[in-house]
Amino acid sequence: MPPWLLSSVLLLALASLCRSEATIEKVTVAANRITIVCDCDGEPELSLREHPLWSDAPIATWLIDGPAKRHTFELQRRPTDGSNERDRLLSRWSVGPAVEEAPASMRYADTVTTAVATPHPTLRSKKGLGGFDVGRGFLSDIEDLGVSTVTVNVMLDFLHNQAAKGRDAFTHAGQQFHIDRGAIARLDKTLQFAADHELLVFAIILLPKPTGEDSPRDAMAHPDYEPEGMFPMPDVTSQRGVTAYSAALEFLAQRYLQSSGPRIHHWILHNKVDAGLVWTNAGKKSLDEFLDLYAKSLRIAHLTARQYDANSRVFASVTHSWTRPEEPRFYAGREVLEGLIARSQAHGDFDWGIAYHPYPQSLFVPETWRDEEAIDSPDSPLVTFKNLGVLVDWARDPVNRFKGEAVRDIYLTEQGFHSRDYSDRELELQSAALAYAWRRLAQHPEIKAMHYHNWIDNRHEGGLRIGLRKFPDDADNPGGVKPIWNLYRDLGEPNEEAAMQFSNKIIESGGDGR
């Protein structure tokens, strides 16, 4: 049995064991109070313990008086320790023998009752765009293409320690921060445009690289971050790191989880975590070490958002890797998802979703129907559009559902098809790949939507031309519409099938454009 699977099995066994002994049954967070229900199984001499998210050591204990089956504790949500106020929203709870130092299991809050179920825009189609920003121009594409949902990159670089011109004060967990008004104004414009067009918005939460200064951006970056990483993993191992990270999320939640105005609806944490060394870096970590960090980041975002919007959901971001890591130093997508489920169930399951990236086997080969490593097997090395059913079947398994019942939401939040150049033949192949993908997507109602990436060809994507439009600085037709743009416009419309007809012969013949 591989080590990652053994770890997941042990975590699930632990959760099962705790259900038959003294354990935490439920944790409910209200505006000013927190309620912990302990199932003591009639055992005497137990204690309730509070553990900070960043450490397993308890910071407070309460003796459970008597051998009753069940005990309920009502505690102040924001106690003051000296001059510092802290929020128990992110605390974990355990119950066990008073002398026990290391708890068998710790439970997070299950419910945040201060939240309201704010309505979200209805998906009018499965068409979305990735990397949306009003600064990119071509804003008429949103209506012209019939887009219903977008992803927006949100960099947590707007938080500062010091007051300065253009900064607004913001207090979190008893600590004062200062918000860069200009950075937030730019984000406001993008999110307000999305709200005006009733778009479902997914914020991709990214951390800036540390600079070596005494700043929130450095505090929230994992201390083992290595410069080869595009973005750091949050530091969830220290109070300082958790406070800075949760402060940035709290500010975003307060500002954008309202019933009107600029909105964020869902949160993607962070980017391609199965390729963590490059995209969500915490240094070289075993899978277990890495997932312990990532699971805490998901939980922080989940609990923070649920204070303001009961419909807001967090999503785990993974590549097309399934059982084969893209590189030996990376992880496989399935082992990441299964490890997250084991941790989620062991500490109180919550309904996080899956943000999948089913790019072709090679991002430079658009003919995804030729993907040899995407096979119809649960143990397929990759999951691309060719074998999307592998991902869906996995999600349908009761073992992987939220509390064994609800299939976790799946969105395809990053994928696109390369045009090797701008010749007619290559642009036709790119369009054929989209037609193939759209037909595959239609077979799986469990997948809510796809965010096409990239909207516009980008010179900083290693030579890829995966956009619906050409490079903005193209010599002949800057930002020009490609044939794939026209096809994307027609998908979901009455002329959809006619628009895809051209792709049949290309796909049936093998469509080798090399």
Write up this protein.
The chain is α/β, with parallel strands linked by helices. The chain has an 8-stranded parallel β-barrel. A 4-stranded mixed beta sheet has the order 5-2-1-9, with no helix packed on it. A 3-stranded antiparallel beta sheet has the order 4-3-8, with no helix packed on it. It has 13 helices and 20 strands. The radius of gyration is 24 Å and the shape is globular. The model is unreliable at 12-20 (pLDDT under 50). The two termini are 40 Å apart.
Helical content, roughly?
25-40%
How far apart lie the N and C ends? 40 Å
The strands making up the biggest β-sheet line up spatially as 10-11-15-16-17-18-19-20
Categorize the overall geometry. Answer: globular
Number of helices: 13
Write the layout of secondary structure elements.
Blueprint: H1 3-19, E1 23-29, E2 33-39, E3 46-51, E4 60-64, E5 70-76, E6 80-81, E7 84-85, E8 92-97, E9 111-112, E10 127-129, H2 141-145, E11 149-155, E12 159-160, E13 167-172, E14 175-180, H3 181-196, E15 200-206, H4 216-220, H5 239-256, E16 266-269, H6 276-279, H7 287-306, E17 313-318, H8 333-346, E18 353-356, H9 388-396, E19 410-415, H10 424-442, E20 447-452, H11 483-490, H12 496-500, H13 503-508
Helix pairs in contact: 1-8, 5-7, 7-8, 10-11
